[in-house]
Amino acid sequence: MGDIRQSLLPRDVLSAAKELLYHLDIYICNLLQSGRQPPQVDTKTLELVEEFILHAPKDRNTSARRMSALQELQLLEIMCSCFQEQSRDAVRQLMFNALFGLQGNQADESRMALLGKLVSMAIAVGRVPILECAATWLQRSHRVFCVRLAQVLVDDYCSMVPGSVSTLQNIHSASPRFCCQFITAVTTLYDLSSEELTPPTELLQMIVFWIQEDLRLILIAFLNTPLTGSQPISSLDVTPLGGLVRWCVKAPLAYRRDKKRTLPSGTGETGPDVGPLFSALHLSVLQVFMLLPNILNEKGLFGRLALLQMDSLATLASELSRLLDQADKQTHVSAADTQALSQLALDRLAQALQVAMANGALLCSREDLRAICSRLPHNNLLQLVLSGPVMYYNNIHTPPLAFSPHAAHSPIASHPAHTPLATHPSAHPQYASQPFMTGMAFPFRPSH
Question: Which of 138, 152, 179, 390 could form a disulfide with 116 if both were Cys (CB 3.0 to 4.6 A apart)?
Answer without folding.
Answer: 152
